[in-house]
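Re: the request from the purification team.
They wanted to know what the chain is likely to look like in 3D before they choose a buffer screen. I agreed to run a prediction and write the result into the notebook, where they can find it.
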Amino acid sequence: MVNKVQEKVDQPANLTRVPKKVLERDDFVKLFITQLQYQDPMKPIENHEMALQLAAFNQVDQLSKLNESFENILKFVKAQEFGYAGNLAGKVVKVYGNIGRVEGGQFMGATFELDEPANQAIITIRDSSGKIVRTLALHNLTKGRHKIEWDAKNDQGEQVPDGNYKISIALNDGTDQRVITPEVVGRITSVVFEEGKAKLKVNEDLTINLEDLKEISWR
């Protein structure tokens, strides 16, 4: 009789079902009851062992409920974040990027920051096809923030159409040349949800995170 019981203990495979990646609370309860049913009558489970296992089951149950709470909180936070981002649609903002915009015949604006003086800055403005429409040269620049003054006209003095324009800045500080990225003023054209986060489309072509906003105009 003992041998038959021992055989059942040693061969639990016939009790298993399709394996799960994560054991749920009911799974632990079933395993515990099964262990009691098929324990060796000559070596029954000790009371303290039973208490430890029950405590472990309770802890797993609490963790499961805690995880569920965290998931609900995360869903709420995501909904709040997306709702807030949705309210920003159409707002004028300043962001770190190289896509400037012309609206109503006016350049919306851009600036750049220098951590040290530079002899010269060459600002190249291209249209959506990559064609250069305007080149600006600034000289004897001091450390700090500088505004890009563009009248939204090309090198021939003609008004450029409304739309997006790529801005690149090449610095010559006397020893070497380097390229920096400006901060552009643009409009939030849409809100998207990527990688579990709400993201903003600025000037249609520039995708940024909420935390990347430098300035928001609420007018």
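For the purification team: The two ends are 86 Å apart (CA to CA).
Please add any questions underneath this entry.
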